[in-house]
Amino acid sequence: MDLLDRWLRPLRTGVVTSTYPKAPPVLEPGVRGLPELDPERCTRESACVSACPTGAIVLSAESWSLDAGRCVFCGACARACPTDAIALGSAVTIAAVRPAGLLHVTPLPARADR
Amino acid sequence: MTEQPADASPATQRLSEAIHRTLGRSLHVRHLDAGSCNGCDWEIAALLNPYHDVQRFGIDIVASPRHADLLLVTGIMTRNLEAAARLTYEAMPEPRLVVAVGACAISGGVFAGTYAGRDGIGSVLPVDVWVPGCPPRPEALIEALLVAVGRLQGRQ
After folding, report:
1. What residues of B are in contact with residue A22 (Cβ under 8 Å)?
2. Residue in A25, A70, A96 closest to B139 by CB
3. Could you tell me the residue ranges of all domains in chain A?
4. What kind of architecture, by CATH, is found in domain A27-107?
5. Could you tell me the pTM of the whole model?
6. Interface touch A21/B8, C-beta < 8 Å
7. pLDDT (tens digit per residue) in B53-86
8. Could you read off the pLDDT of B13-27 as tens digits, one per residue?
């Protein structure tokens, strides 16, 4: 009876196929997507730049840019950030048709104290 | 045209229609491991499981580049694989597409600067779509195939 039940179980399971691309991808908890910066909290200490193992992050006076083609989604930038301004988001479908499309630039607000 | 399920989204329909128009009823994919750590390769293998199931789009993975319309390349392009990768690309019938899968295939990833290979496959093969990730999720690969088919239309 147990064996029969095991054979019949797949018939009762129903459709398991993902709804992507009809709906956004369903991510399990803990999946690391593209790192995102909160520009308001960024203090420009460039701890993320030195923590990044592949040199994917470039910090300038105007912007924080991340090369998704170099990023390995390890989260070292988020852990290194002293103000917790970086979080690994949920963006995983980020294919590009040219290398320039891999660059994700977050503009930074002009600093008042400089 | 094959029949569409009644609840197919516009994106799904566009993908299926584009594949049908340009390639008959199928997009055949050949996977080439050019020095990858096998992370990306497992994500490609996951495309065929019942959950992601790319065969619902008419996409299938084939055993030879001679049967393929699209080449999925993973890894940094090691020196040992360079000649083989060129031969693989030349063995594919026109029109052919190349998709760079993962940070290694795009920029070398954590192996960038190694003496044993190139920093990414872009200097050896003409890449049409770049898929970031380490490894990219299967959804990202499905998206890349969707984008690649859009490119195929523009090329003809």
Report:
1. 7-9, 11-12
2. A25
3. 27-107
4. 2-Layer Sandwich (3.30)
5. 0.83
6. no
7. 888 888 889 999 999 989 999 999 999 999 999 9
8. 676 676 666 665 678
